[in-house]
Description:
The complex is a heterodimer of chains A (about 230) and B (about 80).
Chain A: H1 3-27, E1 30-38, H2 40-51, H3 61-74, E2 81-84, E3 87-90, E4 94-96, E5 98-99, E6 105-106, E7 109-110, H4 118-134, H5 139-143, E8 147-151, E9 170-174, E10 178-184, E11 187-201, H6 207-220, H7 224-228
Parallel strand pairs in A: 4-8, 8-9
Antiparallel strand pairs in A: 1-11, 2-3, 4-7, 5-6, 9-11, 10-11
Helix pairs in contact in A: 3-6
Chain B: H1 3-17, H2 32-35, H3 40-54, H4 69-81
Amino acid sequence: xxxxxxxxxxxxxxxxxxxxxxxxxxxxxxxxxxxxxxxxxxxxxxxxxxxxxxxxxxxxxxxxxxxxxxxxxxxxxxxxxxxxxxxxxxxxxxxxxxxxxxxxxxxxxxxxxxxxxxxxxxxxxxxxxxxxxxxxxxxxxxxxxxxxxxxxxxxxxxxxxxxxxxxxxxxxxxxxxxxxxxxxxxxxxxxxxxxxxxxxxxxxxxxxxxxxxxxxxxxxxxxxxxxxxxxx
Amino acid sequence: xxxxxxxxxxxxxxxxxxxxxxxxxxxxxxxxxxxxxxxxxxxxxxxxxxxxxxxxxxxxxxxxxxxxxxxxxxxxxxxxxx
Lengths: 232, 82
């Protein structure tokens, strides 16, 4: 892309993001929760899983986190759906926040995230990131997300509290995965862990249900082998 | 393959993943990911690209050894000789 065209595209995108986020902060009564999730089991399992796979079929932790969010969301209809014209309609299509080189952000959906097995979900994620950056997303991918996941990754911050993208009613944010000191049955252990946050909409849910959602997310990630299977 | 050719191959694949980077300006002994914005997906795509281009197997367990550009070139050079 010519520099001028890229610059104007970035400016357009900034305007779009600003409009959506300003609307979110104006209309959505956000509440925020956070939880530390130990990932020792998940990361050991993933290392062993990837060791037996060719490089082109390796799976990232990001895919396992997405799967966990989608599976957890099925039990919490008030976390995933659309709030429009005073009415709420639940659904589960997880959106993935993808940062674009040169600035900006887009959060298209991976359809049926919860039903896919892990390698299939990884392929879908990889394909989605590639197409998002190439500007070739389908319109349904842009309009369908009902719950966005943002993952700041290895170069990111410890935690992130996101702004909900209307008409969605929640956003799950993962910070950087790293070693953390965790108190476990009276002992202190150092394990890989992640800070996960939930930003959710008080018009549809409250902190009690939000906390249950995060607890469920944490539990799912302690059994990665089961989580990785299709239709978990 | 000479070290210069190997360096060009690595930089060409890096430039495909991070087109905004001036690869000539990269410091070879400074951690690559301090100089180039590569998330875990970009990194995986970089490894896949090197694997496809050079027919070198790069196990995940070896990622920790691939910190700087010099590390990457040295590692791949060793694999190609082996």
